[in-house]
Amino acid sequence: MILDDRKIKILYAIIKDYILTGEPVGSRTISKKYELGVSSATVRNEMSDLEEWGFIIQPHTSAGRIPSDKGYRLYVDQLMEHKSINQDNMKMIERLLQQKVDQIDTLMKEVAKLLSLYTNYTSIVSSPVIHKTKIKHMQLIPLDAHSIILIIVTDANLVTNNVIKMDIPADQTTLNKLSAMLNESLKGLTMEQINLPVIQELKVKMGIYGEIVNPIVDAVAKTIQTKITPEVYLSGTMNMLDFPEFSDIMKAKQIFHTLEKKDVLISILLKNASKGINITIGEENEIEEIKNCSLITASYEIGGRKVGTIGIIGPTRMEYDKVVSLLSYISGNMDKLLKDNSDG
Amino acid sequence: MILDDRKIKILYAIIKDYILTGEPVGSRTISKKYELGVSSATVRNEMSDLEEWGFIIQPHTSAGRIPSDKGYRLYVDQLMEHKSINQDNMKMIERLLQQKVDQIDTLMKEVAKLLSLYTNYTSIVSSPVIHKTKIKHMQLIPLDAHSIILIIVTDANLVTNNVIKMDIPADQTTLNKLSAMLNESLKGLTMEQINLPVIQELKVKMGIYGEIVNPIVDAVAKTIQTKITPEVYLSGTMNMLDFPEFSDIMKAKQIFHTLEKKDVLISILLKNASKGINITIGEENEIEEIKNCSLITASYEIGGRKVGTIGIIGPTRMEYDKVVSLLSYISGNMDKLLKDNSDG
DNA sequence: GTTAGCACTCACAGTAGTTGAGTGCTAACA
DNA sequence: TGTTAGCACTCAACTACTGTGAGTGCTAAC
Fold first, then answer.
1. pLDDT higher for B221 or B287?
2. Is the CB of A143 under 7 A from strand D?
3. Distance CA B159, CA A148 (A)
4. From the candidates B117, B338, B343, which should be mutated to test the interface with A, based on the most A CB atoms within 10 A?
5. What is the pLDDT, as a whole number, of residue A317?
6. How far is residue B17 CA from its own chain's centroid?
């Protein structure tokens, strides 16, 4: 099996054409539309080899060829041009993100929207994995006789608020003092650093404030524990319906059903969290329902730590080059985008 | 035009059967399945009248009849049984809502999920219109050199947090004093009561703290202004695809497209906000894209004020009785549900 | 090694023919 | 006068058949 230059060119042409049109590509189309200087008969011979080796598939005898997963794999690994997005698009992106993005959840939503808008595929964005982020500030606020609110601000400007229920009433002054103490002890720690020993130590340290301390510290620990699951934002789900691949309602429903399971999405995204750009093609996907889809993910950093993932899901016939360049650009600038919009 | 008892019974049977099966209902079906004691020929004569008067429609010559919008209208206004949901379902609802519903946005999401799960239609839920709710607590928290966080808690336990950017740094102690002052002046007021005069007065009152006051008070005013738009939560969008009415991809896409426009949904929901239960059938809808849908909405109260709406959208062939009873129950208990889960 | 030529395959679209659910009308009956 | 049996009629939906064309694989000649 020798993939000589001409075979590569033919395979490239087939993939490019199929991604563009969605129709099986015939030998005549290749020889006429792409200037290879050979007749359709020659192309046929080459295609026959490519099919034998599993790079392309013939849906039925009298049809052209379509790329197989293996074909796409070769394409993304070796053939695809890695262009970067152009100036105009960069500007468009910055303009879109500059509006009302003061907090991370708003930014996430905007990024998801942007990705789906620009690619016409479906975007999946996971918010920062909170246990890797550092605590910046904590504040207790009285709500009513039986409950107080715990505000936690992390260094990614993620603000979470949680209601704590307690039997003992607490006044503003006490809560301010407790807040100050919590800050003193926990500020700068990552979520995962706040483990049982730290909590115990904290209880002892704050003991002077009496029995009110226990429920509050417990609530802090529990809140941090439960808030560790990242959020997932989807956008452009309906874009799936634009592709003939999913014009069969049953197939579309299958995928939509999968996309509704946030825990499944999280597990998919986290799997590739450490990898930078990752491309999973068709059958390479572990989830049965998306084995006719391709998934491209890119991890992003905040403060130098890989904390989350952004991704695009679409048909295996996907504009890989365009999607990769966009994801690279946005994931690479996530930190900056957030900083520009919150601190600047 | 006299709608005698028998005609009513026949119309009722047609609607019931069509809602159940989705297939046009023939005269033979009526005379056999529903015990009216008359032959199919008699039913045919009656149906002929009902069609002439516009209550039912014949899709084509050799088909049975289906209800028209006018038919459904008569049904929901006069024929439909108003049953209340049974004990088992009440328990199920309470069990579902009792988990992790400590704040209003979580409750909204859960209610939306519940509605779609229980009905198999698509649910639309709008969060409380914030300008009708009262301020319960305000708190300023330092974030970094250039920004502070403003937390506003309303009496519906809605907690909003907003980043305020400023040139002047502010320490915790000052912010605590400012927070106390804000609370003193604004606590108990509804959002809409905080108008320009109140803001001006506040600035004068707080002037002793120097120039830091202006940006903060402005931010408070602006935040309240911009946070007035309610949130909309959707659930079970994909349930639409389960109905043959929307098996045509184009029709489905049209509706999905509309459902993605949050401002359109808000305007639809707000229109019926004052009405308790409201049913809009097919062509009665003002939005072109949902003229083949029915929309049932119910407004809910918090603290005795109508502040938001929950609703179900689906095909005109909808189980109106079931949906109405569910919406009535949930909207009627919204206040209680929220209180049970947050204060209890 | 390349290409022209040709027989072959098969999805797809279009055209009849058949079926059956359901109707409207008429005439007879209670 | 209302009800019903009977019957001709309609028409969507399904099936079977056919022609078309895009595309292939193979062979023989260049």
1. B287
2. no
3. 12
4. B343
5. 97
6. 28
CA separation for the pair B71, B17 (Å, rounded): 13
Indicate whether B9 pLDDT > 80: yes
Taking the alpha carbons of B51, B54, B57, B58 in that order, is the dihedral positive or negative? positive
Same domain, B52 and B108: no
Helix or strand or coil: residue B160?
Answer: strand
Asked if residue A145 has pLDDT above 90, the reply is: no
Nearest chain B residue to A248, by CA: B249
Interchain contact, B103 vs A144, CB within 8 Å: no
**B145, closest residue in chain A (CA to CA):** A343
Within this chain, do residues B34 and B106 fall inside the same structural domain, yes or no?
no
Both A292 and A256 in a single domain? Answer: yes
Using an 8 Å CB-CB cutoff, list chain B residues near A253.
Answer: 238, 241
Give A-chain residues touching B171 at CB under 8 angstroms.
Answer: none
Per-residue pLDDT tens digits for B300-310: 987 777 889 99
User: Which residues form the domain of A173?
Assistant: 131-226
Nearest Cα neighbor of B161 from B138, B179, B188 is B138
Provide the residue type at A246 as one letter.
F
B140 and B21 within one domain: no
Give yes or no: residues A116 and A256 share one domain.
Answer: yes
- Domain boundary, last residue among B157, B192, B226: B226
A44 Cβ within 7 A of any nucleic strand D atom: yes
Looking at the structure of chain B, the number of domains it has is 3
Final residue of a structural domain among B226, B241, B269: B226
Q: Whats the size of chain B, residue-wise?
A: 344
Reported as a single tens digit per residue, the pLDDT across B211-261 is 888 888 888 888 787 777 788 999 999 999 999 999 888 889 999 999 999
Give yes or no: residues B121 and B236 share one domain.
yes
Query: Which of the nucleotides in strand D have any atom less than 7 Å away from a protein CB atom?
Result: 3-6, 9-12, 21-27
Q: What CATH number is associated with residue A198? A: 3.30.390.60
- Domain shared by B188 and B263, yes or no: no
